[in-house]
Amino acid sequence: MIDLEGKVAIVFGLANKRSIAWSIALKLQEAGAQLAICYQNERMKAEAQGLIDELAGAEGFQCDVSNDAEIDTLFGQIKERYGKVDVLVHAVAFAPPEDLRGDFVNTSREGFRVAHDVSVYSLIALSRAAAPLMTDGGSIITLTYYGAEKVVPNYNVMGVAKAALEATVRYLAASLGPRRIRVNAISAGPIKTLAARGVGALGEMLKVHAEKSPLRKNVEQIEVGGAAAFLASDLSGAITGETIYVDCGYNIMGF
């Protein structure tokens, strides 16, 4: 049994009940973690608060991960409220919709910058801010996708950003390892999230994954949440710098 009693977990990216972050939050709470849920801005507060209220003992905090001042303010609040951080979940990614359509060669300079700033650099910024509060070591978890290593139609600049994210996980793991802070990524298969719908052809992707994966099914959000709970726990104490596939085995298949 996974035991996270006494641990403080910060979750970024909880948008709605279809989001992977929601299932991760549920599993962390189920294991006993105290949750701090972060939402982007005042506009998103109302929906986020409804979800936070369903997570007993969880508290909400506002933070735009592309704003260093807001990150500093947030972790000042976290230090004052909890005194420490044990787990950080980075479930944040964004690219302008127009750069997820059409031909990849037409990716805009601004779209490329935004995708990497929000989806990749934010992990570095959040890790840097959280590390001083991880006084007993800790676990940092982010979300990636197979499009980081193979071409997925319509994934475009986000695939490049996810490749950078996976490299960032390795470099952060090496940088933070001496502080006993582990950094890992979960590569989930396609899931019917709001973000995934923005990629396009989701129905076809789900059909192919279910037909081709060894388990002959699609992954469910709660299964990703279980993997995150494992990575958050001491059971994964010697695992860092890894990309853990939670995709029903699809990634091992040649065709």
User: Which sequence of SSEs, written as H and E, runs from N to C?
Assistant: EHEHEHEHEHEHHHE
Number of beta-strand segments: 7
Bulk shape: globular
Number of helices: 8
- Total domain modules: 1
Determine the oligomeric state from the structure.
Answer: single chain
| CATH topology (level 3) name | Rossmann fold
Derived structural class:
alpha/beta
Q: Strand percentage, roughly? A: 5-15%
For the largest beta-sheet, the strand count, sense and barrel status come to: 7 strands, parallel
Fraction in helix: 40-55%
Q: What is the name of the CATH superfamily?
A: NAD(P)-binding Rossmann-like Domain
- Average pLDDT reading: 94
Broad CATH class: Alpha Beta
Pfam families: adh_short_C2
Pathway: Lipid metabolism; fatty acid biosynthesis
Family: Belongs to the short-chain dehydrogenases/reductases (SDR) family. FabI subfamily.
Organism: Acidicapsa dinghuensis
